[in-house]
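Every protein is a chain of amino acids, and every chain bends into a shape of its own. Below is the pair of lines this work produces for a single protein:
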Amino acid sequence: MTGLQNCAASRRRMLNRLYARCNDRQFVHPDPLEFLYRYPELADREIAGLVASSLAYGRVAQILQSVAAVLARMPQPRRYVCDAARKEIHLDFRQFRHRFTSGAEMAALLCSMGRLLRERGSIEEAFADSCDDADVRPALSRFIDALGDRDAFPSLIPDPRRGSALKRLNLYLRWMVRTDNVDPGGWTAIQPHQLIVPLDTHLHRTALTLGLTSRPGADMWTAVEITRSLSACCPQDPVRYDFALTRPGIWKTAGG
């Protein structure tokens, strides 16, 4: 076995040990993912998941508070976004604020979700043509287009044309596609091997340390490179390592 092969094998063993030790629901809090466990019905969970992931920026405590405030307004998320009138939704969220996100933005995103559900039947259906794609990048673009006027909620849904790693949407897909002790899953339109890591600064620093990438910027190309490196360890499910690799960053942010 060559030195390079030895290095790859050692990394695989390390990642698998980390996954076995840390990929457990007891380590989820504090994380917006925990809100998804409240919704056994997939139709509600995909709405709650998009709300939680879209607000997943800033301090963890503030994220949890903001997600809880939104979901408290809609005990049955699918029924709310499908049945509530646009004016009612905007009134419900007129006083909401999460960092750069206004109540008007959140209301606009919820209205877009409702329209998408009435047209497609589910959010998953907006990703349903992705089965032949190598990864989820085309599906993400289709989904953003299907949402409609992204300018109405710019702080919640990034513009893929700017090279963003689309961390929050890739996080959402991880939650909805993968099924294990942490990720509740439920979707079948996308397969785990098509996922891309939800890249943030914490994961980027860890990936640089582990030699998963040498790219200096936390953009989409870096996210793809890290995912490909992880594929060498688990080609059918490279993003399985994301939760365990990001725990130190989550805990540090929560305590900072």
Observations:
- The longest strand covers residues 97-98.
- The two ends are 44 Å apart (CA to CA).
